[in-house]
Design brief:
Length: about 160
């Protein structure tokens, strides 16, 4: 029944997107900002290092909803959020996530901010349910990474760390 209450709250959010044929909700409508371009670049670089085997992710862990500062997506589909409100432990699709098995994925930046890279719909559902925590993988920077790291360079396919 709680999911039905959430649906009422969701009905006033977002706008119909005729191209996507669904209601899209800007994360800013939820008081949840979009990652800056610098943050997005760092997330992208760290994901590339993960795929190259230079960074590792442990198992899923409980993440405080309040610890997530921004979204890489900036928009969520209302129907998918509703699915996760009604079925918090079920996948929406059986397809593999963009980051492989690591979904949802929160990325810790070197400045201490945490950005949702994947699993934004599940995060929004937890936020709307009033959950204090949700389960996610957390990608953390390596010990040799700092504010001075050239994140843009790390995203280039020819970078030595990505080979």
């Amino acid at each position: 029944m709680k999911g039905r209450k959430m649906l009422k709250a969701l009905e006033g959010l977002g706008e119909w997107d005729s191209f996507e044929e669904c209601h899209m909700i800007q994360t800013s409508e939820l008081g949840w900002p979009v990652a800056t371009s610098e943050e997005y670049t760092q997330v992208t670089a760290m994901e590339a290092l993960l795929r190259a085997g230079c960074l590792e992710v442990g198992g899923m862990e409980m993440v405080a909803v309040s610890s997530v500062h921004a979204s890489c997506q900036g928009v969520v589909r209302r129907g998918i959020v509703q699915h996760y409100i009604d079925h918090p432990n079920e996948k929406f699709l059986d397809e593999q996530a963009p980051n492989g098995i690591y979904s949802p994925l929160a990325v810790d930046l070197v400045n201490g901010r945490r950005i949702m890279s994947d699993g934004n719909h599940r995060f929004v559902a937890a936020l709307l349910r009033g959950d204090s925590e949700f389960r996610a993988y957390v990608l953390r920077p390596g010990n040799d990474m700092s504010e001075q790291t050239d994140w843009t360079k790390l995203t280039l396919p020819w970078h030595r760390l990505l080979k």
